Amino acid sequence: MDKPRVVLGVSGGIAAYKACELLRRLTESGHDVRVVPTAASLNFVGGATWSALSGNPVSTEVWDAVHQVPHVRIGQSADLVVVAPATADLLAKAAHGLADDLLTNTLLTARCPVVFAPAMHTEMWEHPATRENVVTLRRRGAVVIEPAVGRLTGVDTGKGRLPDPGEIFEVCRRVLARGVREPDLAGRHVVISAGGTREPLDPVRYLGNRSSGKQGYALARTAVARGARVTLIEANTGLPDPAGADIVRIGTAVQLREAVLKAAADADVVVMAAAVADFRPSVYAEGKIKKKDGQEPAAVELVRNPDILAEISAERARPGQVVVGFAAETDNVLANAREKLQRKGCDLLVVNEVGERKTFGSEANEAVVLAADGGETPVPYGPKEALADTVWDLVTSRLG
Fold this sequence. Notes:
By secondary structure, the protein is an alpha/beta fold. About 30% of the residues lie in helices and about 25% in strands. The protein contains 13 helices and 19 strands. The protein has helices at about 20-30, 45-55, 70-75, 90-95, 100-110, 120-125, 130-140, 165-180, 215-225, 255-265, 310-315, 335-345, 385-395; strands at about 5-10, 30-35, 80-85, 115-120, 145, 150, 155-160, 190-195, 200, 205, 230-235, 245-250, 270, 280, 300-305, 320-330, 350-355, 365-370, 375-385. Helix 1 (about 20-30) packs across helix 8 (about 165-180). The longest helix has 14 residues, at about 165-180.
């Protein structure tokens, strides 16, 4: 079978060196990659490097190999075009249809999915001109990944950092796998919770659960690849940030409630994939609870945590908002889940059987998605991304 053909565009920013890692991941996973740098980017990484790593010729000009019409053919034959890093200048040219070099010509002729991974200083990313260009590109069907927050050039820190190349690769892989040029979550804001809350008992101990957060992260990655603006509220996962997601870090159920209510105010979809502790200690010990010889430990009194899923289902922040819950059950799985769906009032409930060696920490999952209208969608054992895509398919059918 022919290898998937990927065009890797590289524009002139300091983050250009990180595209070498993205190129390596693409080639090692079986993709035929043609690197198309801008002339400015060659100040950071030379053409010889791109040619050696990709195994393909490298050019910046439309005048090279004119008999092959590369400014037309490269875009026409591509299965995916990804630009990483995409500078403010490159985004502006792409949004306005300018074509003064080989990369911008390629973008005009591409009829395949296009992914932009912006990288620039915070002020440039937040400038109204850049924001309008991003809106334009997304409206036309491109996936524009939100930049990461972190160290920029010099002493600057803020939003504008190129996401981790491994995470950009995951977005590209998902876009290629779907093979759809128009992302179906474009223009939508989705809020996803992931991980497990921890309820402090004293400064060194807590009540928690086994949730790894991997299913929530799979939901975030697939939503980004389908064009959504993603807010990921993560609880104690330790996982690498998915490219394109705005990350909110919390620890306890009370903190999760505050973060979800805030983020849900303008969200089209809220997915509560986090494992939320039902109870917390009624008293927090300021010092470590000591073990005393000859004495039994004092009983730990528990109080209920807020029921976040029921609250946001009952009081939708905006009309048409879709709410998805998760149910982890150990016995009477479907019966308990159907009762929970009715009690919580959400639109969809993803239910799976869990245990010490089931689901938690695994790369795979098996579930049934129950719907408030009586629908029931089984998802066979497989990658958590497959379950995530099934959830988004069901969500998009319910969005106005």
